[in-house]
Amino acid sequence: MPPAWPDQERLENERGLKAHRRFDSLELHTLGELAHWLKEVDAPALTGLVVDGETLLPGEGYFRLYGRSSDEFGWWEEQIRLSKEFDWEKLLRERLS
Q: Please, are residues 32 and 74 in contact by the beta-carbon 8 Å criterion?
């Protein structure tokens, strides 16, 4: 389990509700496509918000896509912070115009 970080308690509380649910292949494919698109448009790695109910970590592909190891918790935490602060509406407006 990763060291405690600001949202650790919330994740542990939700774990009981979501641990039984597994992603189907369509969900994994869609999440992967989103991750690649976010990297392409130089947006924060938002898909790190989706974690495994058992490990409380994103999938290995999350870190691998960005050339990171799965123990780089500081980078992961920074991506979550940046995702919360990012102007997603502006990005979508620019891309959909």
A: no
